[in-house]
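TASK: fixed-backbone design
INPUT:
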């Protein structure tokens, strides 16, 4: 049985990804800051054939002890899904350095810190896969939208990190990929594009991310893959 770590699992795409994985007999550790959201996930996962544990975890103040304790208890980690994300929607001229720092802390440094923490475990498993959840906003040559510069720049950095890491880790057997998502109906989308109706539900995207996380590492490495049917 494979072990998965999913960030940003209190709601949206991360919630659905964690749920889809534990319904497929995998062992999942789901992270977010929101205890209530995590307990909703626990309720939704009741009766699933896999197992679900949750952990309150702030990517801006990472405390890795409980995380490492879970991984050691489960005998290792196979897949890390860096899904948590933060979107600040403000004109560039109004963005404060705190906005930039928060955007990069969650969207880039949060992933960096987790990857460094779990790398020793991934290095010793045959099917290790790191899936970074990026955005079409951070995909080179895609349509860009006003108000999303801090968010999009941080996602572009995450995409670039994916390519760099895949090269650096290629001899360790760890695949590293980035899914550049298009519009999915979640709270974050409503913040970015109020009133817009996305063509993809969070449940559908969660199922896709879960599938990609389990299988994609065999077919892709170092890839930034657009997963998008619309603009935005
Ligand atoms: N929805 C879209 O259209 C779309 C498009 C492109 C890319 N994406 C990407 O897909 C991912 C999921 O997005 P979503 O739409 O599902 O967003 P969402 O519903 O807003 O969920 C975001 C998740 O990130 C977590 N998070 C934020 N800050 C955190 C922090 N400091 N520490 C720990 N967790 C934190 C939140 O958890 P708590 O607040 O509970 O801690 C929440 O679980 C994000 O990376 C997003 O950028 C989404």
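OUTPUT:
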């Amino acid at each position: 049985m494979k072990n998965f770590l999913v960030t940003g699992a209190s709601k949206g795409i991360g919630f659905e990804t964690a749920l889809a994985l534990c319904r497929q007999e995998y062992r999942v550790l789901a992270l977010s800051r929101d205890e209530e959201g995590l307990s909703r996930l626990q309720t939704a996962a009741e009766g699933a054939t896999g197992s679900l544990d949750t952990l309150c975890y702030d990517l801006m103040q990472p405390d890795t002890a409980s995380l490492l304790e879970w991984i050691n208890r489960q005998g290792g980690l196979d897949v890390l899904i860096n899904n948590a994300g933060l979107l600040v929607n403000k004109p560039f001229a109004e963005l404060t350095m705190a906005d930039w720092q928060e955007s990069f802390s969650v969207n880039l440094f949060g992933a960096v810190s987790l990857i460094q923490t779990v790398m020793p475990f991934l290095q010793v498993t045959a099917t290790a896969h790191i899936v970074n959840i990026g955005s079409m906003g951070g995909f080179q040559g895609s349509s860009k939208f006003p108000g999303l510069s801090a968010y999009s720049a941080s996602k572009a950095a995450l995409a670039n990190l994916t390519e760099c890491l895949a090269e650096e880790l290629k001899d360790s057997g760890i695949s590293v990929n980035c899914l550049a998502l298009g519009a999915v109906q979640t709270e974050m989308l409503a913040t970015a594009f109020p009133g817009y109706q996305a063509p993809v539900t969070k449940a559908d995207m969660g199922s896709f991310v879960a599938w990609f996380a389990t299988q994609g590492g065999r077919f892709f490495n170092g890839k930034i893959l657009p997963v998008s049917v619309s603009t935005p």
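COMMENT: The first strand starts at residue 3 and ends at 7.
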